[in-house]
Design a protein that fits this description.
This protein is 52% helix and 15% strand. The chain is α/β, with parallel strands linked by helices and 195 residues long. α1 links the parallel β1 and β2. The chain is elongated, with a radius of gyration of 23 Å. It binds 4'-phosphopantetheine.
Length: 195
C-alpha cells in the first residue's frame, strides 16, 4: 500500500494551539506529516526560524509521524523535493477560503500531481491567528489559552527584552533632550553631579 506523505507549510510566527490542533488531525490521516516553516526574509518575523523550529519540535514531540523542517522558495518545489503528495492547509472561517482556494489552484497549476487537503481546526480556534497572538503579546495581554505554555513563555521573554530596550531607549532619549535644553554651564554641573 502507498504511504502518503504530506507537508503542512506556513509561517508559524509563533505556532498556536490552532496549528497544533491541525497537526494532530493531519497526523491521523497521513502516514507522514512534515511541518514546513517558510523562512521568508521579506517579512520581519517576531521569532527566528530556528526558534520557531524549536517550539514546533517541542510541541509535536508526542507525534511519531510528524517532523519539522524549514524551506525557502516555492512550496510545490519543496513538496517535490521531500516526495510529499499533499499539502495540508487549515481553513478556520469562510474568510480564509478565498485566499486558500487561490493558493491551492495556483499550486495545482504549478504542480498538477500535488493535492491540497483542507482541514478545519476545532471551532474554539476559529478566531485564532499568529498575527493576533503577536499583537496581544506586544500589547501586554495574556496569550495563555491561545498558545502552548512553552510558546507563551518565549513570548513573555521576547516582550521583557523589548520592554527593557524601550525603557533604556526612553531613558537615553530623555537624558539627551535634557542635555540639549541646558546651557553649557548647567550641562557641566549636571555631568559633575552624575559622576
Ligand atoms: O502561515 P501562512 O503565512 O499563511 O503560510 C503561507 C505559505 C507559507 C503557505 C505561503 O505563503 C507559501 O506557500 N509560500 C511559499 C512561496 C510560494 O510557494 N508561493 C506561491 C503560493 S501559490
Amino acid at each position: 500500500m502507498k504511504r502518503i506523505k504530506a507537508i503542512y507549510p506556513g509561517s508559524f510566527d509563533p505556532p498556536t494551539n490552532g496549528h497544533l490542533d491541525l497537526i494532530e488531525r493531519g497526523s491521523k490521516i497521513f502516514d507522514e506529516l512534515v511541518v514546513a516553516i517558510l523562512g521568508n526574509p521579506e517579512k520581519d518575523p517576531l521569532f527566528s526560524v530556528a526558534d520557531r523550529r524549536k517550539m514546533l519540535e517541542a510541541m509535536t514531540a508526542e507525534f511519531d509521524n510528524v517532523t519539522i523542517d524549514t524551506f525557502d522558495g516555492l512550496t510545490v518545489e519543496y513538496a517535490l523535493r521531500v516526495e510529499a503528495r499533499a499539502i495540508l492547509r487549515g481553513i478556520r472561517a469562510i474568510s480564509d477560503y478565498e485566499y486558500e482556494l487561490q493558493m491551492a489552484l495556483m499550486n495545482r497549476k504549478l504542480q498538477p500531481g500535488l493535492e491540497t487537503v483542507f482541514m478545519m481546526p476545532a471551532e474554539k480556534y476559529s478566531y485564532l491567528s499568529s498575527r493576533l497572538v503577536r499583537e496581544i503579546a506586544q500589547l501586554g495581554g495574556s496569550v495563555d489559552c491561545l498558545v502552548p505554555e512553552l510558546v507563551a513563555q518565549k513570548l513573555r521573554e521576547k516582550m521583557d527584552v523589548a520592554h527593557k530596550f524601550t525603557t533604556a531607549d526612553a531613558a537615553e532619549t530623555a537624558e539627551r533632550l535634557t542635555q540639549e535644553r541646558m546651557t553649557p554651564e548647567r550641562k557641566t554641573k549636571s555631568r559633575k553631579r552624575k559622576s
